[in-house]
Amino acid sequence: MVYRHYRLPSLTSLAAFEASARHRSMHRAAAELNVTPGAVSRQIKALEEDLGVPLFTRTTTGLVLSPDAEALHAVLSQMFSRTAEAVQVIRSGTRTRRVTLACTHAFASEWLMPRIGVFWRGYPEITVDHLISDDAREFRRAEVDLRIRYGLGAWPDETAVLLMTDRIYLVAGPGFAREHAGATVADIPELPLLHVDWADTEWTGWDEVLRRAAIPHGALPGRRFSTLGVVLQACMDDQGLALGWDRLVRPLVADGRLVRFTDLEMPAPGSYYLSWSAHAPVSGAVATLRDWLLGAAAEDI
């Protein structure tokens, strides 16, 4: 393998490794890099031979990183991101006024889309590109200017401001609510529950809600989904009981597609934050959208 001044392995192999580690999949990395999975696999093998250690363990659910690989990926992810930000700054003098905004599917469909049209019409000179994903790792992509994230507001290399808080209560389809009309909060652990298993570890799940409500429970039954939007669809179809974030489910409750179930309600442990890179300057277009979103959230309150 050829070395440069910094005695680094091939940048091609490092890029293949970084994408594979981020996606936990060589196939998805290959799709992103526009090469074959075999090409990615060969680059990873060459890198492992050069470093003298294995980087991945392949499982049925994806790649598992070794401790060495986790450390290398943390550094590469930050460095690639910083490099991409520098390139974007250089390009910004000639590119059109575009802003890429990242958020989850549920937030986009239930809160953002009913409101963002006002911004589009008010600022036609700014083009907003929407990266919508329930995998928070996608929010680290270089082209993302603003992120709407749920959590505690502390993410490496990001500046975050509070967008809005929320409350959690239980929701069900009207048919499910009629079928279980006599249920109490103590019965919740035995009911069919709809779970969201997100890549984002800060998302609040059933176990945390029940513990905060001091409801004894063991292993929780129910189906698991990767997106909140699909959970709400299943809930409206009377398939089970779901956790409802008021900001997202309020319109569905208002028009009767969902109903509140029992009187259990609590402040959400996390909040919605608006974040951006702590290392890159904020362009005028980004600042305009950021300030508009903060204003829209304030009106929602």
UniProtKB/TrEMBL annotation:
Keywords, comma-separated and alphabetical: DNA-binding, Transcription, Transcription regulation
PROSITE patterns: HTH_LYSR
Pfam families reported in the protein's UniProt record: HTH_1, LysR_substrate
Ranges where the HTH lysR-type domain occurs: 9-66
InterPro entries named among the record's database cross-references: LysR-type_TF_proteobact-type, LysR_HTH_N, LysR_subst-bd, WH-like_DNA-bd_sf, WH_DNA-bd_sf
GO molecular function terms listed in the Swiss-Prot or TrEMBL record: DNA-binding transcription factor activity; sequence-specific DNA binding
Family designation: Belongs to the LysR transcriptional regulatory family.
Protein name: DNA-binding transcriptional LysR family regulator
Organism from which the protein derives: Amaricoccus macauensis
